[in-house]
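Here is a typical sample entry:
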Amino acid sequence: MVAGIIVAAAADDKILTAPSSVASASSAWMILGGPALFLAGHAAFKWVVWRVIPWTRLAGVAVLGLLGAAAPVLPEIALAACAAAVVAAVAASDRMTAIPLPLRSP
């Protein structure tokens, strides 16, 4: 998880130097790979501690991988926004499943 944060921070630094440039292969790996590494690391952590693999983390990694196909045509800042949206969606879906539903009376 820490490695994912470090890679994402390096990608942010790269993006801030030229935000409108189209993502090169190395930039796309950093922009999408950092969040993917974080999500995969968190899934591994949950597996080791609770023996549960959250499907939301795996789906997030898959979506980030699919975003790699759009990397050659998107500006770096748009690719980073998409990666942030994926991580936010994973967090929101985790939150929605953690909210208990009210009990219904028969």
Remarks:
- The two ends are 45 Å apart (CA to CA).
- The chain is about 75% helix and 0% strand.
- The mean pLDDT is 92.
- Residues 25-50 form the longest helix (26 residues).
